[in-house]
Amino acid sequence: MMGKSRRLIELMMAVNRKRKFTVKELAEEFGVSTRTMLRDLQELSGMGVPLYSQVGAGGGYHVLTERSLPPISFTENEAFSIFFASHALRHFSSLPFEASAKSALRKFYRYLPEDVKSQIDEMRNRIDFFTHTRPEQAGCLELLLQASIRRLPVTINYGIRKNGTHERTIQPIGIYAHEGYWFCPAYCYLRQAFRLFRVDRIGSAVLADAEASTPTVDVSEVDLTNWGPHFYSTLESIDVQVKLTAKGIELFREKSWIFPWGEVHRSNDGTGILEMGIFPSEIPFFADYFFSFGAEAVVIQPEELREAVRTKLVRALEEYNVPQS
What we know:
Elements lengths: L3 H15 L1 E2 L1 H8 L3 H13 L4 E4 L5 E4 L12 H12 L10 H13 L3 H10 L17 H10 L3 E5 L7 E7 L3 E3 L2 E8 L4 E6 L3 E6 L30 E7 L1 H10 L7 E4 L5 E7 L4 H9 L5 E5 L1 H19 L4
Antiparallel strand pairs: 1-3, 2-3, 4-5, 4-9, 5-7, 6-7, 7-8, 10-12, 10-13, 11-12
Helix pairs in contact: 2-3, 9-10
């Protein structure tokens, strides 16, 4: 006959899997009396499994949304890896499921053996994962992530406060972090195209009325692994060519998160030509971007972007030519 401890663990797994059940069903499945099963369910409830009972026809037990997962055993090295995976995120000012992550880490740490705790305490000040610490808060990460998973539109209030904000509806593809900032690639219903949103510039976000925001494109197959090529597929864009030195190619690879759909054609001498597409409205942004490359990047086309970078270079040179008092 199955021991009580093992039965409780398997019972926890069973109720999480079933979600809805009766005492009689579980008693028959585990080969115990209904009275024993009632006591077991009471113990599970005391352990934190959120059970809800409903009487009458069609009644039974339900597991609420906040389910408890069954216990899992870890080796010491697995425990170290889990702790430091969480430790690696500590420089971010905002994280999805932040409160839950802190709670989980506290629980995890509390039940570790004392010698493992001592090793973690010693190592936590000897290993770090530095990223830019940003003061800007990204307060809707969980909503954007859930909307991307469930493919639901979201209405956001977006923009930089000093320049004013505006409302638009988007369909998030996912969220990702880079250099301390969180970004959300999404299909924008206003622009009828994919756009990249900085999450800390989203002042508010709520799930939109799906019927009032019927998607104009099918985004079901778009995710963070392939969203780049879709970015300029629905509206006309400007072809861009940029000549890169060998060092310029390295700089592009370091910063290619901005537009992962760009392609570099390398020559035998180590230089290359970057080809990509941008919207006309993005010329000021990419002028700043390629200006940061200095002499390692030269815009070939379009002329508007080439001129915008040239203007920045001239202004910088003028500043250096001004005599210092």
